[in-house]
Design a protein that fits this description.
5-stranded mixed beta sheet, Cytidine Deaminase, domain 2, 6 helices, 24% strand, 140 residues, alpha/beta, 5 strands
Length: 140
């Protein structure tokens, strides 16, 4: 089975939020919500992420930046923000999704996701990384 199929199947079967697969091996998976599990994977195993296949429930612009800078091979997600999709495609990362939206909403569905707001106008990846780190520290 292809890595992307393994990742997609596990996402559903185990009710996960993120699955990373490379050369047939699942090397990261989580049920944590939000940007935290992807940020954890990126900051602790960025090199292992290079060339992997990923499945994720929700990918906003900030998550797309993390995936793009980890240099993954392909991504499947249930929902992706338009800006994130464009960013990944510009990096020549194969992307498939069940739904493309203008932006990711917060959990109450009444405003933009707070991490999406952090990434909305950001142009520097290192700055975004600092903002995500601060957000995670403040919201634990």
């Amino acid at each position: 089975m292809k890595d992307i199929e393994t990742a997609k199947n596990l996402l559903v079967e185990e009710n996960l939020t993120i699955v990373l697969v490379k050369k047939g091996e699942v090397f990261f998976k989580s049920k944590e919500r939000g940007i935290k599990p992807l940020y954890k994977a990126y900051t602790t195993m960025k090199n292992e992420m290079r060339g992997c296949s990923a499945a994720d429930k929700v990918v906003g612009t900030a998550a797309a930046w993390l995936y793009a800078n980890a240099d993954i091979k392909e991504l499947h997600c249930n929902v992706i923000a338009e800006k994130g999709s464009v960013l990944l495609k510009n990096k020549r990362i194969n992307v498939s999704s069940n739904l493309k939206v203008e932006y990711i909403k917060n959990r109450q569905k009444d405003d933009m996701c707070p991490v999406e707001k952090l990434a909305k106008d950001e142009t520097e990846f290192e700055m975004l990384l600092k903002k995500i780190n601060k957000f995670i520290l403040e919201n634990n």
